[in-house]
Please model this.
Amino acid sequence: MNTEIRKLIADHARLAVDVSTLADDASLYEAGMTSHATVNLMLALEASFDVEFPDSMLKRSVFESVTAIAGALGELQQA
Amino acid sequence: MADYRPGTPEQAAFLAELVDRRLLLQTSVPGLYGRGEGFEEVFQRVSELVTRAGAAESPEQMRFPPLLPRHDLETVGYLKSFPHLAGSIFAFDGSEQDAGEQYERACQHEDWSEFQSMTELVLTPAACYPVYPQIASRGKLAPGGVTVDAGAGYVFRHEPSGDPARMQMFHQREIVRIGEPDTVLAWRNLWRERAISLLRDIGLDAQFAVASDPFFGRAGRMLAASQREQELKFEVVVPIAGPEPTAVASFNYHQDHFTAAYRIEFDGGAVAHTACLGFGVERITLALFRAHGLDRQTWPEEVRSRLWAA
Model:
């Protein structure tokens, strides 16, 4: 799952650095991900993993890092 | 078309009083008003009150028409965040025969939109928008950046409502700060405090609130949550016509949203940020009439002396 997440981050998060240099728990915001880029990443994750983030998950912390995103997706896929 | 939002009974009653006293001049479209003599006098005083409050910073003065090049609206991504509020200018594009047909349909008040084409213009949705391309056109910023007083500019939001405080076209008394991130943030916080004092001094029950913009759709909910979490937008709210207090001023920290779009940066390449503050002049005027009564001659002396100070 993390490999796919990293690919989507590379395509949509418009980071100031190469995502492959970041640890799974590194902050994507500190790496330069803007609010608008977060929205693009969110929509790409939904399309790719066939899930829909509920309103309660539409907040910054859910998209903070590869680990946080994987956790949220795991929660949605179990539901 | 945007749905009409009826006012609450309290809002409808306040609007009826304002129209009856010829403070607001009603038109056939909800949210579009003229300003009567009494309203206009207070309106000008409110705008001047803000001018006096900001004078010490010696801001550069700029004034713009209520139209924006369409290209600029596209550059800043407005249609992604607020597609539901934007207004674009269309104009006739066709043959003499088309003109005749358009006229016939217009006489019957039928749909004549097929003879219209998009122009290079849109209605200005926020009074700070024309400022950024001007600053960008000058090249690199000098240390300290720049403060711009954009006056009281007309802005458009397509949201027809029966609440007199929710107009489709209204004035934002706007000041913009472009500079180093720390400078811009400190400026915004300073003005937040200044605005609360300013409004309390004219007898308004001004309160501070962390706010978000009315972004569109699900992506918008994400943007709004993000804006709140980062405390990028503050508002000052005052009671006008319930149930909730109404925002009469906003203080917005855009980070690099506009400077990235227009490549505004310092000499040497350091990042510049922007913030703006906007006072809703009509809303503050309405709040004054609500708080002190519709006859401005009977307002408390302390309020009158502050507004009619110069």
